[in-house]
């Protein structure tokens, strides 16, 4: 994983807090840092990222990874992202914007997604996108973008786009799942059930189950539950709403059911999770 400024030669053997340099023999790509050349917004974003996670993401050959600061500039990318942007090295990507790297229609969509995540402080999950590769061939990607906070303030975002590379994921399947994702996002505070998701997908519950497991590796119930917990986490860490209100806005029946589910999936109560996130931000 290279964290370098454009035109700056990497210094072998140096490492940043953000984990730019992998340990010898670890399999991580050994690159250097240019801490003095990074701009303030990038510094703040990178300081908020886990170095171990950053190193791990560099080895995902079928997944594009990037971190973008609040000014819209790329602060961190992996090798797959560099290849997808048709550049030779991370130094040709870091410090640039989407408009400087991608075709106008792609850059516009990326900026719209990024603006939503940075402005609202909400994650964007499971966005299905048809993207052409360097040979001009279309392929389906599954994109997730998550805001990064420091001291309670959004300082940037991290994003992954996974190449589905599945011959049996055709346009009909993708179209049906796109409608499911939109339904969940727009009506998460309602008591959605499997029948609602299947109706949006235009197929039977059994067919939807197979499609979602194939693409998302989750059942419809698991997908819906994860979306509710994701929404709750965003509200817990990004607002001062009462727990009962967080439960309602996340689509849980009541606060007790919200607490039981949250504890089961995260190992902590919502109140403890909020308190710990506040301590981390303050630190």
From TrEMBL:
Signal peptide: none
Pfam name, any one: PAS_4
Keyword Chaperone attributed: no
Residue span, HTH araC/xylS-type domain: 178-276
UniProt keyword annotations, A-Z: DNA-binding, Transcription, Transcription regulation
MF (Gene Ontology): DNA-binding transcription factor activity; sequence-specific DNA binding
Annotated segments matching region Disordered: 1-33
Source domain of life: Bacteria
InterPro entries: AraC_XylS_family_regulators, Homeodomain-like_sf, HTH_AraC, HTH_AraC-typ_CS, PAS, PAS-like_dom_sf, PAS_4
The keyword Transcription appears for this protein: yes
Matches recorded under PANTHER family: HTH-TYPE TRANSCRIPTIONAL ACTIVATOR RHAS-RELATED
Name used for this protein in its record: HTH-type transcriptional activator Btr
The organism of origin for this protein: Isoptericola dokdonensis DS-3
